[in-house]
Design brief:
- By secondary structure, this protein is of the alpha+beta class.
- It has one domain.
- Helices cover 51% and strands 17% of the residues.
- It has 5 helices and 4 strands; from the N terminus they run αββαααββα.
- The strands form 2 sheets. A two-stranded antiparallel sheet has the order 1-2. Strands 3-4 form a two-stranded antiparallel sheet.
- A hairpin with a 4-residue loop joins strand 3 and strand 4.
- Helix 1 crosses helix 3 and helix 3 packs across helix 4.
- The longest helix has 14 residues.
- The chain is globular and about 40 Å long.
- It starts with a helix and ends in a 5-residue tail after the last helix.
- InterPro entries: DUF3181.
């Protein structure tokens, strides 16, 4: 299932403002990190699998470049558990 462009943009804005990655005690919101659009796209193509699966698989598929791109980690490794629950909550309305 994919969503229309307006809903995708709405999803991207929700992710940008609510979801962050955590490095030590720093919180970097996805909008500031430039990762909200990629995560929104990855989530949107998985919505037919349900919010839980879509969130987990999308977080694993988005690769975050570190150290100028010399290393890449899945976004899932940088998101605290509470943010995973928030992501699932954000995706729930789109899965219906």
């Amino acid at each position: 299932m994919t969503i229309d462009p307006a809903d995708l943009k709405e999803l991207q804005l929700s992710l940008a403002d609510r979801i962050y990655l955590q490095i030590a005690s720093w919180h970097l919101y996805l909008g500031d990190a430039g990762l909200a659009e990629n995560l929104a796209i990855e989530c949107s193509v998985r919505l037919n699998e349900g919010a839980n699966v879509a969130a987990r698989q999308a977080l694993e598929s988005v690769q975050v470049p570190l150290g100028g791109g010399s290393t890449r980690l899945p976004l899932a490794r940088l998101i605290p558990a509470s943010q995973l629950r928030d992501l699932e909550e954000i995706l729930e309305p789109y899965c219906r």
